[in-house]
Amino acid sequence: MTELITSLEVDPPTWNESVRRCGGTIFHSAEWSRFVQADQPNAVPEFYTLYGHDGEVAGVALGFSTRSVRRVASPFTGSRWFDAPPTLRDGSGVTLADFVAAIERRSRDAGDVTLRMGSFASANTEPTLSELGFAIARRIEFELNLASDEKVLWDGMGCKRRNTIRKAMRSAVVVRELAADEGVGHLRRLQGASFVRIANRGGPRLVHRHDSCGDPVEGLIDAGVARTVAAFVNDECVSASVFTTFNQLAYLMLAGHDAKALETQAPTLVLWEMSLRFRAEGFTRLNLGGCGIDAVQDTSPEHGVYAYKKGFGGTLLECASGEKTLRPTVHRVSNLVRAMVR
User: Fold this and answer.
1) What is the CATH number of the domain that holds 9?
2) What are the residues facing 232 on neighbouring strands?
3) CB burial class (10 A; 0-12, 13-18, 19+) of residue 38?
4) How much is the pLDDT for 342?
5) Is the pTM of this model over 0.85?
């Protein structure tokens, strides 16, 4: 490693080209930085470019930092996080450990209390993060290889999954893409129904934070790196999903379904049809998203999610998020103060 440059602003096309050359995903892109900032206005995007011994870009990373706007609390609340770990150019001679260690030094110099490294669309990072002293949270993601023939994709699914697709076809489910405002409106409405089901089966109680006007997801769609896909039964929208699309990877980012969708297997038909559409458009991978590692246990509230996505026959990606407390004493005091004011 020779030099790490951190910037608060970049030229989006130039930055995205570096991301693509390093094999990065939507979670490293300029569009994702704008999405997170719209979703969390106090988050400050930071663009990291690592140069190798050959003087070329060896890797890139997209991080975010936050701290309290209150002057007294600001020194004790600094936090830095990455939704995905740094991505590296093949053959650069620079390791992920070098990159993450350099980020940690920058984070310590800035007085941050915590540093978190996410794992979206990223596998096999646990050894590095563990070696660097991060506390690990394991996840699983499910990914389809769209370079395969359609028959291979079909045969790779379990018999049960193929039958549910046939059921959706018999139920006259219609899949189509929607404009940003209409699609996101359906998505948020249907997410409400999904949130109720998740809570009822013992999962977390989720709440959508945004109004329908100016939803951050619309920014991704308007930028051309996401699309909303809906399923209709008798002209009624029963399922809506948002897929991000960047660097030949389609990623299932959000979804919402009502009871009619589950009855007709509409979400399953959406995933099957979109796998074929993305394949025809030249995408090489479709990531169905993931779940916590505990979901493999049949006692987990997420076990149904695990079994459902596994049924599509894709590759199981072992992902690991990591978090490190950089200032333990400050962290303990901050937690104590927050507990006292609740």
Assistant:
1) 3.40.630.30
2) 174, 237
3) middle
4) 43
5) yes
